[in-house]
Amino acid sequence: MPQTLFTPGPVPVPATIVESMSQPMIHHHSAEAKALFGSINTRLQQVFFTEQPVLTLSSSSTGAAEAAVCSLFNRGEKALVFNNGRFAERWARMLRVFGLNVQEIMIEWAKPVTAEIATQALHQHPDVSCIWLVHSETSTGALSDVQGIIASLRPFTNALMCVDAVSSLGVHELRMDDWDIDVLLCGSQKGFMLPPGLGFVALSQKAWQKTAQCSTPRFYFDLKAAAEAHRKNAALFTPAMSLLFGLDAALDRMLKEGMEKVWARHEQLATLLRTELLQSGYTFFTHHPSNALTTVLIPEWCTDIVQILLKRYAVHVAPGQDHLQRIMFRIGHIGAYTQEDVHFLASILRTIATEYRPSL
Ligand SMILES: *Cc1c(COP(=O)(O)O)cnc(C)c1O
């Protein structure tokens, strides 16, 4: 049976992972649990390409981001946020809630952040203590060259580079240590092929040092305390155990395939889908697409295409968000999709085009 959920998060959960999550409950302070935490921790480092601890929180990705903010920054510190979509905008809003002085650089939604835009902004705001980038902006489908941007900013700043990799980790090449990322954020419901409910965050050595100067109130989302527990393979609070059983299986699956192959497969599927859609007469919202999702302009010959896909074909794609709802829709292909799934969806979209598109 081909997949019918084509949203860029949550994503379909493979049957073997679903099965692993139905294991009988174990106590989170048991030797068995500690062994599981230890083995998950080591493999998360391989997926993040870091030697630093990767902390797993029982929250969605936004919880992981909030934990990073309240463990690292004090009121009044200056942040530079590149707003090229709704998720970047979310981080700007969150930073303001915590009293940071946010310099928000507006970039047309659909476009990526470029090294040129980033260096120019930094020269205008040289005293920022953190810089926020969304690798794959899931609201528009645009991919930014995080590696190139950080490399071009680094000579001019010691600011912490904070990267939202929620829809790019396990999809695109991403190497935390090599790329000099200081705060890397992710969640379970995208490249990890898990249900929603886990947030991941890793800090560089430099970021860990900065936590010593942070006095922002926090309790549940205290990364310093979480790191101490992590060192002992212990849990500070009752973790989402069943999701951790699933994570164990998901990490096995990802590392068995190999991260390079996982990235290559996502590229192949994204290219395949776009080639087929172009042939059916569809056009795209962004010219700088991430391999996580394809953002398609709503054709004037079928303005209710999202509803037709759902009602007639039981295929779930994501509408555009906010003002983009009438402009485009989003097809997710993150995780366990196959060529068969892509052909299945492309053939439905071809059928719709054949039926609705006026012949030329
Ligand atoms: C899905 C997504 C998020 C979501 O955050 P949650 O708290 O897990 O809902 C954040 N950023 C990006 C780029 C995403 O794709």
Structure description:
This protein has 360 residues and is an alpha/beta fold. Helices cover 41% and strands 14% of the residues. A seven-stranded mixed beta sheet has the order 1-9-8-7-4-2-3, with helices on both faces. A three-stranded antiparallel beta sheet has the order 10-12-11, covered by helices on one side. Strand 2, helix 4 and strand 3 form a beta-alpha-beta unit. The mean pLDDT is 97. The structure holds pyridoxal-5'-phosphate. The site of pyridoxal-5'-phosphate has 11 residues, from helix 3.
Secondary-structure map:
Blueprint: H1 15-20, H2 31-48, E1 54-57, H3 61-72, E2 78-83, H4 86-97, E3 101-106, H5 115-124, E4 130-134, E5 136-137, E6 142-143, H6 146-153, E7 160-164, E8 183-187, E9 199-203, H7 205-210, H8 223-231, H9 241-257, H10 259-279, E10 293-297, H11 305-313, E11 318-319, E12 328-332, H12 339-356
Parallel strand pairs: 2-3, 2-4, 4-7, 7-8
Antiparallel strand pairs: 1-9, 5-6, 8-9, 10-12, 11-12
Helix pairs in contact: 2-9, 5-6, 10-12
